[in-house]
Amino acid sequence: MKTQYNDDISLIKALKNEDPDAYSFLLRNYHHKLCVYAFSLTNDNDFAEDVVQNVFINIWRRRSNLKDDFSLKNYLYKSVYNEYIDQHRKQKSILSIEKKYIDGLSMVVESEDESYLNKLIEIVKREIENLPPRCKETFLLSRKEGLTNIEIAEYLNISVKGVEFHLSKAFKILRNSAQEKVQTILFLLFGNNSLTTCTP
Questions:
Q1: 198 pLDDT higher than 50
Q2: Which of 20, 76, 99, 132 has a 20 to 30 A CA-CA distance from 165?
Q3: Residue 161, pLDDT score
């Protein structure tokens, strides 16, 4: 029979008492949700799994340091975010401009519920897919591939002004869906390449 815990206080107490049922309960209730959230940050299933696994390992290792009266749910999601940032920093050096958007992401994560960011990412993805063909192509060459406006103009055989027009149009559409968080979401989707050219 699976052990049930009525609240965070009883669950945390059981974890601190090294109760394996408490750890199993934590895994059953949060592993899949955290993997979905981690994937929204990483866009990589294996990376997401590693992040979540590290979070659960660290919780068990540090169980004796858990506070008795705090939200485990919030703690888990914030731990996934922090682990993602730690791993991200290990994989690549962070430019000052990149750190700006990582800090912005932190504010989004801390100020919204756990489903908000994932919904926002899906909305932006959908809006990108629905951009007019040439506008979408120009936008992806800029943000996904990291090409400069001049390189895009040469590749598409259009003027630099034409490139700027398509990028401005794309950002106007995306801002309507993500507002001030659009650049943070683009950083999550495309990484450093989304920051290589100036935002129109």
A1: no
A2: 99
A3: 92
DSSP symbols for 23-89: HHHHHHHHHHHHHHHHHHHHS-HHHHHHHHHHHHHHHHHTGGG--SSS-HHHHHHHHHHHHHHHHHH
Tally of domains in the chain: 2
Measured CA to CA, the distance from residue 7 to residue 44 in angstroms comes to 33
CATH number at residue 140: 1.10.10.10
> Number of helices (H) and strands (E), helices first, in the chain?
10, 0
The predicted-structure confidence for 78-110, as pLDDT tens digits, reads as follows 888 888 877 766 665 444 445 555 555 555 555
The answer to whether the Cα torsion of 158, 163, 165, 169 is positive or negative is positive
Give every CB contact of residue 73 below 8 A, 6+ residues apart in sequence: 8, 30, 114
Read off the amino acid at residue 170: A
Residue 178: how many CB atoms within 10 A of its CB? 17
187 pLDDT higher than 70: no
Q: CATH code at 32? A: 1.10.1740.10
- pLDDT, average across residues 141-148: 80
Q: Phi-psi bin for 179: left (phi > 0), alpha (psi -120 to 50), beta?
A: left
pTM above 0.70, yes or no: no
Instruction: Supply the pLDDT for residue 167.
Output: 87
- 128 in a structural domain: yes
